[in-house]
Amino acid sequence: MSYSDLAESASETKEQLVANLRRVVSDAEDLLAATAGQTDTKITELRARAKENLHLAREKLADADAALDDALLGGGEVA
Questions:
Q1: Could you give the CA distance from residue 2 to residue 7 in angstroms, rounded to a whole number?
Q2: Which of 3, 11, 64, 78 is close enough to 71 for a disulfide, judged by CB 3.0 to 4.6 Å?
Q3: 47 vs 6: CA distance, rounded Å
Q4: Distance CA 20, CA 44 (A)
């Protein structure tokens, strides 16, 4: 397997990871919306943690997406 093949494989894997993260974020957002009316203390605490983690996940996803775009458009290597 050549270096080019390895780089292409790594790029495809990272694209799959970004797509999977998008689905997880979407599912978590749906879950938060579905439980919005719940007032139980544990659910309220869990929703707060989930919102915080979703915010961080969105930031990381945007960073990963931008790095992937830069690498693919620039012909460079995806880090």
A1: 9
A2: 78
A3: 40
A4: 26
Closest to 59 in 3D by CA, of 49, 70, 67: 67
Burial of 73 (0-12, 13-18, 19+ CB in 10 A): exposed
Contacts of 11 (CB under 8 A, 6+ apart): 68, 71, 72, 78
| pTM score | 0.65
DSSP per-residue letters across 40-71: -HHHHHHHHHHHHHHHHHHHHHHHHHHHHHHH
Spatial contact of 18 and 64, defined as CB atoms under 8 Å apart:
yes
pLDDT per residue over 28-42, tens digit each? 999 999 999 998 999
First CA to last CA distance, the chain: 19
Q: Would you call 76 helix, strand, or coil by DSSP? A: coil
